């Protein structure tokens, strides 16, 4: 594994493509996600964001790019589902990914604790590992910065009850994080067009993750269908 600085340097001003399909999604398959990642690499992506050990393992065989690894795991007790407990963090660390992304919202986690209670021990134990904080607000990102995360992502803006309805991509959040925190700000969530991607970089994002617009054909199809229906109705 490369040094932290080298990894971050390799994604600076570059596109990261998220290749994810949950069990209920049509493309759920490590094989398909690895091909998606390969296509993204050929297209010029410089990083891949991926969910689950099975997908990550397959993706590693197909591409030689840094991976932001997550494990989405839903527990009954909590709404936190992106790398929510110590168990998922340990699994990702053992598997080996360049960056581990964790839900860094203020919500109670499945173990009954909040991020400020659990992260210090993780930071200490895995001091050589890069961690990305998946945040939904400025205050969450501020706390994540103070806790020692290596980069801050806007991943969860619009996806917590208190940010629902936020227009994505959340340019305001990106700009305020760029202004106030001297670590890489990763724009993620709701980037649908090349123009929006360009815009988040203009706002100062260090790197940007695009998922659905590139790797979820069902959602892409829906957008096209909706456009036509709208025209017919409107
Ligand atoms: C909220 C949540 O669960 N986000 C997930 C995080 O990994 C993914 O489902 C998104 O696809 C990813 O964040 C990229 O965003 P978008 O697909 O909008 O480009």
UniProtKB/TrEMBL annotation:
Catalytic reactions of this protein: an N-acyl-D-glucosamine 6-phosphate = an N-acyl-D-mannosamine 6-phosphate
Enzyme Commission number(s): 5.1.3.9
Keywords: Carbohydrate metabolism, Isomerase
Gene Ontology CC annotations of this record: cytosol
GO molecular function: N-acylglucosamine-6-phosphate 2-epimerase activity
GO terms classed as biological process: carbohydrate metabolic process; N-acetylmannosamine catabolic process; N-acetylneuraminate catabolic process
Annotated pathway: Amino-sugar metabolism; N-acetylneuraminate degradation; D-fructose 6-phosphate from N-acetylneuraminate: step 3/5
InterPro entries: Aldolase_TIM, NanE, RibuloseP-bd_barrel
UniProt xrefs under Pfam families: NanE (PF04131)
Function: Converts N-acetylmannosamine-6-phosphate (ManNAc-6-P) to N-acetylglucosamine-6-phosphate (GlcNAc-6-P).
The family this protein is said to belong to: Belongs to the NanE family.
NCBIfam families, alphabetized: PRK01130.1
HAMAP family per UniProt: ManNAc6P_epimer
Listed name of the protein: Putative N-acetylmannosamine-6-phosphate 2-epimerase
Gene designation: nanE
